[in-house]
Design a protein that fits this description.
The chain is mostly helical. The chain has four helices and no strands.
Length: about 110
Amino acid sequence: MSAAALTFRPEEGSRLLPFAANVRTETLDDIRHDGNATRAYTMGSLEGELAFAVAATPDSLLLTMQGCQRELLLRLGLVGDLSIEQERLRGWIVGLIGSLSASFDAEG
């Protein structure tokens, strides 16, 4: 197949392109010439925002927090067969998020 026969349509490859265009304008253009650590932090922050958006349940703080917990455990690789230390860390996260979730007063 020749290159002349190819048509590049990135919008068909990802529904996130409009979002990414916004992010590029608001954030990424500012850090283009920064160091790797700043760029990595910014990309990680954007990934965290996406994980929150996926986990968010608009009508339920509890379900949103549980979804965030799932995303965090998955991101840290704390699923499946784990070592003792990994199980402890997983339990620590579940205990922390569970206690935080339980501390909100639904009537408040």
